[in-house]
Amino acid sequence: MIVRNEAPVIRRCLASVRSLIDHWIVVDTGSTDGTQDLVRAALGDLPGTLIERPWVDFGHNRSEALALARPHGTYTLVIDADDELLVPPGYTLPTLDADSYDVAIADGPITYRRTQVVRNALTWVYRGVLHEFPNCPEATRAGALGLTLRRHPLALLRPRMARLRLLSAEQLDRLPDGCLVRACGLVTLRQRPQTAQGTIFVSLEDETGNVNVIVWKDLADAQREPLLKARLLAVQGLWQRDVDTGGQVRHLLARGFRDLTPWLGRLAGNRRSRDFH
């Protein structure tokens, strides 16, 4: 796989493939957020190497990663950092004898198939600089595996959210203390501790990570409807980083909400938040 600044999502991705791999090759193309250390920590007990290479384009860098992986196994599984491989309980790989294998790609309500596993005895390369695809003229036999790669539903909505200047969790993490911002995510948790004097704590999740939101009682009372009922919640507020921890403790102090749940359609499936009420 190729990565760059994938710290918010890389651990989930790597955890999802651990049970199926014998060796790993991760090519980093210039991360500045500590992705390299997270990869080594997640896979350090398995044979493999993190290799740093300059970025050229998707076709070039994916092809380079395939070439680096070729000596280390019979087949190579290709995955992106924001993907999660869904492995059914008790699943074991069948005997592999085809030149390539497709897996199902779940993009919200849409599912399609794509080649993600290739035989290393053949010289596979990726064609294209952006919408790249694996190609090998010598390949003749293709198969399918009973596996699915799942993408976060908000990855599909990111262009729409960007038009409203709604930042991702990853973008917020780069900001200094005191910025007025807008963010949006799936509500995964609402908490109202008895000792918090009516303050509500909300956790939002997007395709890059999580955002912790603090809601004072006055605002919670004034905007109770979107706060308590939205599945997809946009928040406007003040981004804060704790000085004593060097900015490691961070949260969004809410000043207003907007319920964007209709944007989801069927994208979020049966996801529900864990709530106090």
Your description of this structure?
- Helix 1 (10-17) packs parallel to helix 2.
- The model has no long low-confidence stretch (mean pLDDT 90).
- The longest helix is centred in the N-terminal third of the chain and has 12 residues, at 58-69.
- This protein has helices at 10-17, 35-43, 58-69, 153-163, 169-173, 217-222, 224-229, and strands at residues 2-3, 24-28, 48-52, 75-77, 83-86, 100-107, 110-119, 125-127, 133-135, 142-151, 179-191, 200-206, 209-215, 232-241, 250-259.
- A five-stranded mixed beta sheet has the order 4-7-6-10-5.
- The protein folds into two domains: 2-151, no CATH class; 154-263, OB fold (Dihydrolipoamide Acetyltransferase, E2P) (Beta Barrel), CATH 2.40.50.
- It has 277 residues and is an alpha/beta fold.
Output the number of helix runs. Answer: 7
Rounded mean pLDDT score: 90
What structural category arises from helix and sheet content?
A: alpha/beta
Q: How far do the termini sit from each other?
A: 42 Å
> What would you report as the Rg, rounded to the nearest angstrom?
21 Å
Count the domains: 2
Major sheet strand order: 4-7-6-10-5
Which of globular, elongated, flat, extended, rod-shaped describes the shape? elongated
Give the DSSP E fraction (strand runs of 2 or more residues): 35-45%
Low-confidence stretches: none
